[in-house]
Amino acid sequence: MSAALLLLNGVSVTAALEGVLGGRTPMKNVNDLHAQYLEKYAVTAHNKKGTSLKFKRVISGETQLVTGVNYRLVIEELNGDNMGKYQAVVYEKIELHSFKRLLE
Fold this sequence. Notes:
This protein is 19% helix and 45% strand. It is of the alpha+beta class. Strand 4 (69-79) and strand 5 form a beta hairpin. The model is unreliable at 1-17 (pLDDT under 50).
C-alpha cells in the first residue's frame, strides 16, 4: 500500500469499501488500529516539515472510495503546550501485488 498526505491546521479498509464510489462514508470506529495507524502516519509526515505535533487521538473520520481510499480524519494533537484540532487527508492506494495458487 502507498499513501499520500495533505494536513491542514484547524477505519478499516473493509468499512471503506462498503461506501459508494466517490461518496463519503463516516468511519464506524475511529479507535480501531487502522485509524490509529493513519493518524500516526499523518502526524509523522507533517512533522517532517519542521513541526513537532504529538499524537493524541482521532475524533472523527470519513472514507471516500476512489482508485484507492481517501481517509479524512479530524484529529486532536498536542503542539507544545497547546491542544489543537487538525484535519488530515490520507490517500491509501490498495493494489494486488500477486495472487497464485499454492501447491499442497
